[in-house]
């Protein structure tokens, strides 16, 4: 089973889409520890992408889609254990190569990715 969410908008007040519902990230942080955790990973990567692109002088519109792949064995007994986190940085307003360069730099600098790279992948998806 997977849990998916997409974080988008501006750095100060990003929005999160889960299914067809869209909420402020700040509201999800207050909702429950699980929602705060699920929101925090794409939020960290979102901020890292925007920070790196700004430093590099790259104009970028982005959103981060997070897919949490759950361990079905644990889920059967009611425990949410995440096997893998797949993050897609969807970007536009820049070239495909610039987006890829930003994502590679984030992989070298982002503390969340560096801490969990054995269970996490970050991919770039260029939008025209």
TrEMBL record:
Q: Which Pfam families match?
A: OsmC
What InterPro entries is this protein classified in?
KH_dom-like_a/b (IPR015946), OsmC/Ohr_fam (IPR003718), OsmC/Ohrsf (IPR036102)
Under the heading Gene3D superfamilies, the entry gives: 3.30.300.20
Question: What lineage is this protein's organism placed in?
Answer: Archaea, Thermoproteota, Thermoprotei, Sulfolobales, Sulfolobaceae
Q: Which domain of life is it from?
A: Archaea
Record's protein name: Putative redox protein, regulator of disulfide bond formation
Question: What is the annotated signal peptide range for this record?
Answer: none
């Amino acid at each position: 089973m997977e849990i998916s969410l997409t974080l988008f908008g501006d750095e100060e007040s990003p929005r999160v889409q889960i299914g067809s519902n869209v909420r402020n990230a700040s509201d999800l942080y207050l909702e429950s520890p699980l929602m705060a955790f699920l929101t925090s990973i794409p939020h960290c990567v979102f901020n890292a992408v925007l920070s790196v692109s700004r430093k590099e002088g790259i104009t970028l519109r982005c959103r981060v889609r997070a897919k949490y792949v759950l361990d079905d064995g644990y889920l059967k007994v009611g425990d949410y254990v995440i096997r893998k986190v797949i993050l897609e940085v969807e970007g536009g307003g820049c070239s495909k190569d610039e987006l890829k360069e930003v994502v590679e730099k984030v992989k070298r600098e982002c503390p969340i990715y560096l801490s969990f790279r054995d269970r996490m992948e970050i991919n770039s998806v260029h939008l025209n």
